[in-house]
Amino acid sequence: MDDDDAGLWTRVRQGDELALAALFDRYDARLFxxxxxxxxxxEDAKDAVTVAFFELWRKRASVRLVDGSPLPWLLTTxxxxxxxxxxxxxxxxALLDRAPVAATATSGHDDSGVLSALKRLPEREQAVVVLSVxxxxxxxxxxxxxxxxxxxxxxxxxxxxxxxxxxxxxxxxRA
Length: 175
What we know:
By secondary structure, the protein is mostly helical. It has 2 domains: 94 residues, Rna Polymerase Sigma Factor, Chain: A (Orthogonal Bundle); 70 residues, Arc Repressor Mutant, subunit A (Orthogonal Bundle). It is built from 9 helices and no strands. It starts with a helix and ends with a helix. The mean pLDDT is 85.
């Protein structure tokens, strides 16, 4: 444990974002390697590290250091995040495996413009629309598959439908 960790940690606890950035620069590569060993996808490993640092900042008043370093806490948090991401990914893949293939999605032809409007939605809204409207899954199963609360499914679906309705109205398509 070098003195720099103790000094940086004192500054982080006082709300110094630059000190957090310095800790990130110091431990990012090591935490990424740790997450990469636990996860299948590189992007998930990046997410796990990001979430761990977000939690470090959020819980900075209660984080327990080991020998004056936040590294053990960060390694543990990255492992927890990795397990959560892997579990969520498995549920999502299982749901997709059970989903029937829609004829309209495979035909590649869209005279109405609905599919192109759907593709312009943010990815998280697309996922909810596809699972709910096109595939017919109930909100509870969508929430479980995406790892989000049922209320979030409802709000994303409502927002996406409003966007689609507005966009299709501009194109002259009756929704």
